[in-house]
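Working notes for the structural subgroup meeting. M.R. asked for a predicted model of this chain before we commit to crystallization trials. I am recording the input and output together here so anyone reviewing the notebook later can reproduce the run.

Input as submitted:
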Amino acid sequence: MLSPRNPSRRRCLRRTALAALAPLSPAVWAQPPAEPARAERRMLQLLDLSPEQQELSRDYSTGVRLAWAVEGQRGHPLAGISLETLTTDGSAASVAAALDRLAQDKGLLALVGTVGDALAVQVQDGLARRGLRLPHLGPWMADGRHDANEALALLFASRRMQLQKALGSAYGMGVDRLVVVYRRAEDQRLYDPEVAAMARTLGLTLQRLTGTSANRPADLAARLPTAGAMILLLATSAEVAEFTQAMARRGDHRFVLALGDVDAPSLLQFHPGQGVPVILTQVVPNPLRSRLAVVDRYRDRLGALYDEAPSPISLAGYLAGQYTAALVRDTAGPLTRERLLDQLARRRAVNLGGWTVDFRDGRRGSQFVTPTLLSATGQLIG
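Returned structure, recorded in C-alpha coordinate form:
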Protein backbone atom coordinates (compact mmCIF):
# COMPACT_ATOMS: atom_id res chain seq x y z
CA MET A 1 0.00 0.00 0.00
CA LEU A 2 1.28 3.45 -0.85
CA SER A 3 1.56 5.87 2.02
CA PRO A 4 3.17 9.33 2.20
CA ARG A 5 6.08 9.94 4.56
CA ASN A 6 5.89 13.12 6.62
CA PRO A 7 3.68 15.05 4.17
CA SER A 8 4.34 18.50 5.59
CA ARG A 9 8.08 17.90 5.21
CA ARG A 10 7.49 16.57 1.71
CA ARG A 11 5.71 19.75 0.63
CA CYS A 12 8.38 21.88 2.29
CA LEU A 13 11.09 20.03 0.39
CA ARG A 14 9.24 20.55 -2.87
CA ARG A 15 9.08 24.28 -2.24
CA THR A 16 12.80 24.32 -1.45
CA ALA A 17 13.60 22.38 -4.62
CA LEU A 18 11.46 24.72 -6.69
CA ALA A 19 13.16 27.76 -5.20
CA ALA A 20 16.47 26.27 -6.31
CA LEU A 21 15.13 25.98 -9.85
CA ALA A 22 13.75 29.53 -10.01
CA PRO A 23 17.01 31.23 -11.02
CA LEU A 24 17.12 28.97 -14.08
CA SER A 25 13.83 30.29 -15.40
CA PRO A 26 13.54 33.14 -17.95
CA ALA A 27 16.94 34.59 -17.07
CA VAL A 28 18.76 31.73 -18.79
CA TRP A 29 17.43 33.05 -22.09
CA ALA A 30 19.11 36.43 -21.90
CA GLN A 31 21.73 35.74 -24.60
CA PRO A 32 21.51 32.16 -25.91
CA PRO A 33 24.72 31.24 -27.74
CA ALA A 34 24.37 30.42 -31.43
CA GLU A 35 26.80 27.47 -31.26
CA PRO A 36 27.36 26.38 -27.64
CA ALA A 37 30.61 24.69 -26.72
CA ARG A 38 30.58 21.06 -25.64
CA ALA A 39 30.58 21.98 -21.95
CA GLU A 40 27.59 24.26 -22.57
CA ARG A 41 25.31 21.70 -24.20
CA ARG A 42 21.81 22.37 -22.96
CA MET A 43 18.41 20.78 -22.68
CA LEU A 44 15.32 22.42 -21.25
CA GLN A 45 12.38 21.43 -19.09
CA LEU A 46 9.16 23.44 -19.36
CA LEU A 47 6.93 23.48 -16.27
CA ASP A 48 3.35 24.59 -15.70
CA LEU A 49 3.34 26.17 -12.25
CA SER A 50 -0.27 27.31 -12.26
CA PRO A 51 -1.95 26.63 -8.90
CA GLU A 52 -3.70 23.54 -10.25
CA GLN A 53 -0.58 22.01 -11.80
CA GLN A 54 2.29 22.95 -9.51
CA GLU A 55 2.11 19.83 -7.30
CA LEU A 56 2.28 17.55 -10.34
CA SER A 57 5.00 19.65 -12.00
CA ARG A 58 7.18 19.69 -8.92
CA ASP A 59 6.98 15.92 -8.51
CA TYR A 60 7.75 15.21 -12.16
CA SER A 61 10.57 17.75 -12.23
CA THR A 62 12.06 16.20 -9.10
CA GLY A 63 12.23 12.85 -10.90
CA VAL A 64 13.82 14.31 -14.04
CA ARG A 65 16.45 16.17 -12.01
CA LEU A 66 17.15 13.07 -9.95
CA ALA A 67 17.96 11.22 -13.19
CA TRP A 68 20.23 14.11 -14.19
CA ALA A 69 22.06 13.83 -10.86
CA VAL A 70 22.55 10.08 -11.41
CA GLU A 71 23.43 10.19 -15.13
CA GLY A 72 25.23 13.52 -15.13
CA GLN A 73 28.28 12.23 -13.27
CA ARG A 74 31.63 11.94 -15.01
CA GLY A 75 31.56 9.19 -17.59
CA HIS A 76 27.74 9.03 -17.71
CA PRO A 77 25.62 10.02 -20.75
CA LEU A 78 24.35 13.33 -19.36
CA ALA A 79 27.74 14.59 -18.17
CA GLY A 80 28.39 18.01 -19.69
CA ILE A 81 24.72 18.60 -20.57
CA SER A 82 22.98 21.18 -18.43
CA LEU A 83 19.27 20.93 -17.73
CA GLU A 84 17.66 24.35 -17.62
CA THR A 85 14.14 25.15 -16.49
CA LEU A 86 11.58 27.56 -17.88
CA THR A 87 8.35 28.01 -15.95
CA THR A 88 4.96 29.08 -17.28
CA ASP A 89 1.72 29.94 -15.53
CA GLY A 90 -0.29 27.75 -17.90
CA SER A 91 -1.83 30.66 -19.79
CA ALA A 92 -1.79 30.83 -23.58
CA ALA A 93 0.28 34.03 -23.45
CA SER A 94 2.86 32.45 -21.14
CA VAL A 95 3.18 29.36 -23.32
CA ALA A 96 3.46 31.47 -26.49
CA ALA A 97 6.26 33.52 -24.92
CA ALA A 98 8.13 30.34 -23.99
CA LEU A 99 7.75 28.99 -27.52
CA ASP A 100 9.00 32.24 -29.03
CA ARG A 101 12.13 31.90 -26.93
CA LEU A 102 12.57 28.29 -28.04
CA ALA A 103 12.37 29.36 -31.67
CA GLN A 104 15.19 31.88 -31.11
CA ASP A 105 17.51 29.44 -29.35
CA LYS A 106 19.37 27.51 -32.07
CA GLY A 107 21.74 25.88 -29.58
CA LEU A 108 19.11 24.06 -27.55
CA LEU A 109 19.39 20.28 -28.01
CA ALA A 110 15.98 19.11 -26.79
CA LEU A 111 13.00 19.60 -24.53
CA VAL A 112 12.86 17.09 -21.68
CA GLY A 113 10.02 16.28 -19.31
CA THR A 114 7.51 19.00 -20.16
CA VAL A 115 4.74 18.92 -17.55
CA GLY A 116 1.69 18.94 -17.27
CA ASP A 117 -0.48 17.44 -19.95
CA ALA A 118 -2.18 20.60 -21.24
CA LEU A 119 1.15 22.42 -21.43
CA ALA A 120 2.75 19.51 -23.31
CA VAL A 121 -0.09 19.55 -25.86
CA GLN A 122 0.15 23.34 -26.28
CA VAL A 123 3.92 23.12 -26.71
CA GLN A 124 3.67 20.43 -29.38
CA ASP A 125 0.96 22.41 -31.19
CA GLY A 126 3.14 25.52 -31.04
CA LEU A 127 6.23 23.73 -32.33
CA ALA A 128 4.22 22.50 -35.31
CA ARG A 129 2.82 25.97 -36.07
CA ARG A 130 6.33 27.43 -36.01
CA GLY A 131 7.78 24.63 -38.14
CA LEU A 132 10.29 23.95 -35.35
CA ARG A 133 11.74 20.40 -35.27
CA LEU A 134 12.99 19.94 -31.74
CA PRO A 135 13.30 16.61 -29.88
CA HIS A 136 10.58 16.50 -27.22
CA LEU A 137 11.56 13.77 -24.79
CA GLY A 138 9.36 12.24 -22.11
CA PRO A 139 6.70 14.94 -21.69
CA TRP A 140 3.88 14.19 -19.27
CA MET A 141 1.29 13.88 -22.04
CA ALA A 142 -1.62 11.46 -21.82
CA ASP A 143 -3.36 13.18 -24.74
CA GLY A 144 -2.99 11.10 -27.91
CA ARG A 145 -3.32 13.62 -30.73
CA HIS A 146 0.44 13.84 -31.39
CA ASP A 147 1.29 10.16 -30.91
CA ALA A 148 2.59 9.68 -34.47
CA ASN A 149 5.09 12.57 -34.32
CA GLU A 150 8.60 11.15 -34.77
CA ALA A 151 10.21 14.04 -32.89
CA LEU A 152 8.14 13.22 -29.81
CA ALA A 153 9.05 10.48 -27.32
CA LEU A 154 5.86 9.62 -25.42
CA LEU A 155 6.93 7.14 -22.78
CA PHE A 156 3.74 6.37 -20.88
CA ALA A 157 0.25 5.09 -21.60
CA SER A 158 -2.23 7.43 -23.25
CA ARG A 159 -5.45 8.68 -21.72
CA ARG A 160 -7.39 6.24 -23.88
CA MET A 161 -5.31 3.32 -22.56
CA GLN A 162 -5.84 4.50 -18.99
CA LEU A 163 -9.58 4.88 -19.45
CA GLN A 164 -9.94 1.45 -21.01
CA LYS A 165 -8.02 -0.17 -18.16
CA ALA A 166 -9.88 1.69 -15.42
CA LEU A 167 -13.30 1.08 -16.93
CA GLY A 168 -12.41 -2.54 -17.55
CA SER A 169 -11.69 -2.95 -13.84
CA ALA A 170 -15.19 -1.63 -13.13
CA TYR A 171 -16.86 -3.79 -15.78
CA GLY A 172 -18.55 -5.96 -13.19
CA MET A 173 -20.34 -2.92 -11.82
CA GLY A 174 -22.52 -2.76 -14.91
CA VAL A 175 -21.40 0.75 -15.82
CA ASP A 176 -23.08 2.04 -18.98
CA ARG A 177 -23.36 5.75 -18.18
CA LEU A 178 -20.49 8.04 -17.27
CA VAL A 179 -20.61 11.58 -15.88
CA VAL A 180 -17.57 13.44 -17.19
CA VAL A 181 -16.55 16.45 -15.12
CA TYR A 182 -14.29 19.07 -16.73
CA ARG A 183 -12.85 21.68 -14.41
CA ARG A 184 -13.13 24.41 -17.07
CA ALA A 185 -14.22 24.95 -20.66
CA GLU A 186 -10.63 24.84 -21.92
CA ASP A 187 -10.23 21.33 -20.47
CA GLN A 188 -13.37 20.21 -22.27
CA ARG A 189 -12.08 21.66 -25.53
CA LEU A 190 -8.75 19.86 -25.15
CA TYR A 191 -9.93 16.49 -23.89
CA ASP A 192 -13.53 15.87 -24.93
CA PRO A 193 -12.86 14.61 -28.48
CA GLU A 194 -10.67 11.82 -27.10
CA VAL A 195 -13.02 11.01 -24.21
CA ALA A 196 -16.04 10.94 -26.54
CA ALA A 197 -14.26 8.64 -29.00
CA MET A 198 -13.32 6.27 -26.17
CA ALA A 199 -16.90 6.27 -24.87
CA ARG A 200 -18.25 5.30 -28.28
CA THR A 201 -15.78 2.41 -28.45
CA LEU A 202 -16.88 1.12 -25.05
CA GLY A 203 -20.59 1.75 -25.61
CA LEU A 204 -20.84 4.31 -22.82
CA THR A 205 -23.35 7.14 -22.65
CA LEU A 206 -21.74 10.40 -21.54
CA GLN A 207 -23.17 13.26 -19.53
CA ARG A 208 -20.90 16.30 -19.26
CA LEU A 209 -20.50 18.81 -16.46
CA THR A 210 -18.17 21.76 -17.12
CA GLY A 211 -17.03 24.41 -14.69
CA THR A 212 -15.45 27.82 -15.03
CA SER A 213 -12.41 29.47 -13.50
CA ALA A 214 -14.71 30.79 -10.78
CA ASN A 215 -15.89 27.31 -9.77
CA ARG A 216 -14.23 25.35 -7.02
CA PRO A 217 -14.28 21.55 -7.32
CA ALA A 218 -16.83 21.55 -4.48
CA ASP A 219 -19.12 23.74 -6.61
CA LEU A 220 -19.04 21.16 -9.38
CA ALA A 221 -19.75 18.33 -6.94
CA ALA A 222 -22.89 20.19 -5.85
CA ARG A 223 -24.07 20.22 -9.48
CA LEU A 224 -23.59 16.51 -10.15
CA PRO A 225 -26.56 14.86 -11.86
CA THR A 226 -28.07 11.91 -10.06
CA ALA A 227 -27.85 9.70 -13.16
CA GLY A 228 -24.59 7.92 -13.90
CA ALA A 229 -23.02 5.09 -11.96
CA MET A 230 -19.48 6.47 -12.19
CA ILE A 231 -17.88 9.91 -12.40
CA LEU A 232 -14.81 10.65 -14.49
CA LEU A 233 -13.02 13.69 -13.08
CA LEU A 234 -10.15 15.07 -15.17
CA ALA A 235 -8.31 16.98 -12.47
CA THR A 236 -5.33 17.01 -10.12
CA SER A 237 -4.83 15.38 -6.72
CA ALA A 238 -5.90 18.46 -4.72
CA GLU A 239 -8.97 18.97 -6.91
CA VAL A 240 -10.04 15.32 -6.64
CA ALA A 241 -9.69 15.54 -2.86
CA GLU A 242 -11.87 18.67 -2.62
CA PHE A 243 -14.42 17.22 -5.06
CA THR A 244 -14.78 13.96 -3.11
CA GLN A 245 -14.96 15.82 0.20
CA ALA A 246 -17.98 17.70 -1.16
CA MET A 247 -19.50 14.44 -2.41
CA ALA A 248 -19.07 12.88 1.02
CA ARG A 249 -20.84 15.81 2.70
CA ARG A 250 -23.78 15.24 0.34
CA GLY A 251 -23.85 11.52 1.03
CA ASP A 252 -22.90 10.75 -2.58
CA HIS A 253 -20.74 7.62 -2.60
CA ARG A 254 -20.46 6.87 -6.31
CA PHE A 255 -17.15 5.77 -7.77
CA VAL A 256 -14.88 8.55 -8.99
CA LEU A 257 -12.45 7.69 -11.76
CA ALA A 258 -9.21 9.70 -11.86
CA LEU A 259 -6.30 9.18 -14.22
CA GLY A 260 -2.52 9.34 -13.98
CA ASP A 261 -2.36 13.05 -13.07
CA VAL A 262 -3.61 12.05 -9.64
CA ASP A 263 -0.77 10.80 -7.47
CA ALA A 264 -1.88 8.43 -4.71
CA PRO A 265 0.43 9.77 -1.94
CA SER A 266 -0.52 13.36 -2.79
CA LEU A 267 -4.23 12.52 -2.85
CA LEU A 268 -3.98 11.02 0.63
CA GLN A 269 -2.19 14.14 1.89
CA PHE A 270 -5.16 16.22 0.77
CA HIS A 271 -7.65 13.95 2.61
CA PRO A 272 -10.20 12.74 0.03
CA GLY A 273 -13.83 12.44 1.08
CA GLN A 274 -14.58 9.58 3.45
CA GLY A 275 -16.70 6.85 1.95
CA VAL A 276 -16.14 7.92 -1.67
CA PRO A 277 -14.25 5.22 -3.60
CA VAL A 278 -11.70 6.44 -6.15
CA ILE A 279 -10.13 4.43 -8.96
CA LEU A 280 -6.72 5.76 -10.00
CA THR A 281 -4.59 4.68 -12.92
CA GLN A 282 -0.81 4.49 -12.66
CA VAL A 283 1.40 4.30 -15.75
CA VAL A 284 4.61 3.20 -14.00
CA PRO A 285 5.45 0.35 -11.61
CA ASN A 286 4.63 0.71 -7.95
CA PRO A 287 7.36 3.07 -6.68
CA LEU A 288 7.43 1.43 -3.24
CA ARG A 289 7.06 -2.27 -4.02
CA SER A 290 8.59 -2.82 -7.46
CA ARG A 291 11.87 -4.74 -7.41
CA LEU A 292 13.02 -3.58 -10.85
CA ALA A 293 16.63 -2.39 -10.74
CA VAL A 294 15.70 1.05 -12.07
CA VAL A 295 13.10 1.51 -9.33
CA ASP A 296 15.52 0.33 -6.64
CA ARG A 297 18.02 2.90 -7.88
CA TYR A 298 15.33 5.60 -7.96
CA ARG A 299 14.31 4.90 -4.35
CA ASP A 300 17.90 4.83 -3.14
CA ARG A 301 18.97 8.08 -4.79
CA LEU A 302 15.69 9.87 -4.04
CA GLY A 303 16.15 9.20 -0.35
CA ALA A 304 19.83 10.12 -0.41
CA LEU A 305 19.59 13.32 -2.45
CA TYR A 306 16.12 14.69 -1.71
CA ASP A 307 14.86 12.86 1.40
CA GLU A 308 11.59 12.50 -0.52
CA ALA A 309 8.96 9.78 -0.36
CA PRO A 310 8.66 7.80 -3.62
CA SER A 311 5.63 8.56 -5.78
CA PRO A 312 4.40 7.40 -9.20
CA ILE A 313 4.80 10.91 -10.66
CA SER A 314 8.41 11.45 -9.62
CA LEU A 315 9.24 7.89 -10.72
CA ALA A 316 7.79 8.71 -14.15
CA GLY A 317 9.99 11.82 -14.29
CA TYR A 318 13.00 9.73 -13.33
CA LEU A 319 12.25 7.26 -16.15
CA ALA A 320 11.94 10.18 -18.59
CA GLY A 321 15.38 11.38 -17.52
CA GLN A 322 16.81 7.88 -17.79
CA TYR A 323 15.38 7.50 -21.29
CA THR A 324 17.02 10.79 -22.26
CA ALA A 325 20.35 9.47 -20.99
CA ALA A 326 19.92 6.27 -23.04
CA LEU A 327 19.07 8.26 -26.17
CA VAL A 328 22.14 10.45 -25.73
CA ARG A 329 24.34 7.39 -25.12
CA ASP A 330 23.14 5.71 -28.33
CA THR A 331 23.49 8.78 -30.55
CA ALA A 332 26.60 8.47 -32.72
CA GLY A 333 28.95 11.35 -33.35
CA PRO A 334 28.97 14.83 -31.81
CA LEU A 335 25.68 15.47 -30.07
CA THR A 336 23.43 17.78 -32.09
CA ARG A 337 19.73 18.40 -32.34
CA GLU A 338 19.63 16.72 -35.76
CA ARG A 339 21.45 13.59 -34.57
CA LEU A 340 19.08 13.30 -31.62
CA LEU A 341 16.12 13.57 -33.99
CA ASP A 342 17.55 10.84 -36.20
CA GLN A 343 18.16 8.54 -33.25
CA LEU A 344 14.70 9.22 -31.85
CA ALA A 345 13.05 8.43 -35.20
CA ARG A 346 14.58 4.92 -35.12
CA ARG A 347 12.32 4.09 -32.17
CA ARG A 348 14.74 1.50 -30.79
CA ALA A 349 13.71 -0.42 -27.70
CA VAL A 350 15.61 0.57 -24.56
CA ASN A 351 15.91 -1.41 -21.34
CA LEU A 352 16.13 0.93 -18.35
CA GLY A 353 17.10 -1.45 -15.58
CA GLY A 354 14.20 -3.81 -16.16
CA TRP A 355 11.71 -1.22 -17.43
CA THR A 356 11.49 -1.46 -21.21
CA VAL A 357 10.68 1.48 -23.45
CA ASP A 358 9.50 -0.19 -26.65
CA PHE A 359 7.59 1.72 -29.32
CA ARG A 360 5.95 -1.43 -30.66
CA ASP A 361 3.07 0.53 -32.15
CA GLY A 362 5.41 3.30 -33.28
CA ARG A 363 3.69 5.71 -30.94
CA ARG A 364 3.97 5.03 -27.20
CA GLY A 365 7.01 3.68 -25.40
CA SER A 366 4.82 1.84 -22.91
CA GLN A 367 1.22 0.70 -22.68
CA PHE A 368 1.55 -0.23 -19.00
CA VAL A 369 -1.46 0.78 -16.89
CA THR A 370 -2.42 -0.57 -13.52
CA PRO A 371 -5.53 0.52 -11.60
CA THR A 372 -5.37 1.39 -7.92
CA LEU A 373 -8.49 1.56 -5.78
CA LEU A 374 -8.83 3.98 -2.92
CA SER A 375 -11.64 2.16 -1.18
CA ALA A 376 -14.57 3.67 0.68
CA THR A 377 -12.64 2.99 3.89
CA GLY A 378 -9.63 4.99 2.69
CA GLN A 379 -7.35 2.02 1.95
CA LEU A 380 -5.25 1.88 -1.21
CA ILE A 381 -5.55 -1.47 -2.92
CA GLY A 382 -3.29 -2.41 -5.82
